Amino acid sequence: MPRQSTIATSAAITGIGLHSGSSVSLELRPAKTGTGIVFVRADLPGKPRVKATATNVTGTQRATTLEDGEAKVFTVEHLLAAFSALGVDNCEVEMTAAEPPVTDGSALPFVRLIQEAGIVEQNADCQYTIITEALTVRMPDKFIAILPYDGFRISFTSVNPHPLIGIQYGDYEITSNSFIQEVASARTIGFMHEVEALKAQGLALGGSTENVVVYDGDKVLTPLRFSDELVRHKILDVIGDLALAGRIRGHVIAVKSSHALNTALAKQILASV
Ligand SMILES: [Zn+2]
Q: 123 CA to middle of ligand 1, Å?
C-alpha cells in the first residue's frame, strides 16, 4: 500500500484569479496525515478553512466552488488536479483571496510549484476508493461514468461546434508522468463572442490571451500547445473535480462532461464508500 504524501517545504506564487481578476498570494504548506487538501482564507477574520471534498461543492458555473461556513474558494480544479496526479494527499493552501492565480490557464505552474516544494512520504497508508460497480451521471446530451478498473484512466469525448475544434477524443492512464507530459499544460478555452456576457456575470474578469486559448470567429488568437488541447484540458478538469472524492481506482468514460457532472460523480463516489 502506498504511503500518504505531503510537500517537504512551503512554496508560494502570486497572480490574479481567472474569474474574479483579483490579486492573490497562494502558499502551499505541509500538512499532517489525514488532513487532505485544505484551503485557508488568510484574508478573512479567523482564517476560515474549507476542505477539498465533494460535499463542500456549492457551485459549478465555469469553475468549481467550495464552501464551508465563511470560507469560500473557486476555480480550484487545476490546483487539485496537480495535487492528485502528483500524489500529494495532505496540504494546506493559504490564499489571500477566494480564487487561486490563473497562472497560464493550465496546471503546469502548479506542478512546478509542488515540485519546487518537494514531495515527502508520511507515516500512514493511502486510502483508495475502489470502484466496484458502474456509477453514472447523465444529462440529455452528456454523461460521465466510472467503471471498475485496476488503475486510474480517463476516456473523454468533447464536442464543440467551432470549425477549428469539432469532436476530440482523449484516453489516458493517469500517472504523474502522463499527467505532466500530456495533460497538465493544456489550457482553458474561451470565445470572444462570450466575453461580454461572461464579464457582465462577473466571470472571466482576469481572462486574456495570456491565460486562455481564445477563439474569435473562425480564428484562434492563441497558439495551441496541442492540436487537441481542448479535450486534454477537459481531462485535466475531470482529474481536479474527481480529486474531491479522494484517490480513486476506476475508469472514467465521459462525453461533453462539465464541472456540474464531474462534481456530481465525485459526490456519488464519496456516497458509495
Ligand atoms: Zn479548467
A: 33
pLDDT exceeds 90 at position 196? no
Taking a C-beta distance cutoff of 8 angstroms, is the pair 12, 28 a contact?
yes
Catalytic residues: 259
Domain final residue, candidates 82, 106, 125: 125
Domain hosting 52: range is: 3-125
Q: Are residues 119 and 133 in the same domain?
A: no
Cα 245 to middle of ligand 1, angstroms: 17
Query: Is residue 92 within a helix (H) or strand (E), and if so which, with residue range?
Result: strand 91-95
Chain segment 126-146, per-residue pLDDT in tens? 999 999 999 999 999 999 999
Amino acid in the structure at residue 57 = V
Is the separation of the CB atoms in 95 and 79 below 8 Å? no
Tally of domains within the chain? 2
CATH number of the domain to which 47 belongs:
3.30.230.20
- At residue 129, the pLDDT reads 96
Predicted TM-score (pTM) of this structure = 0.97
1 CA distance to ligand 1 centroid (A)? Answer: 31
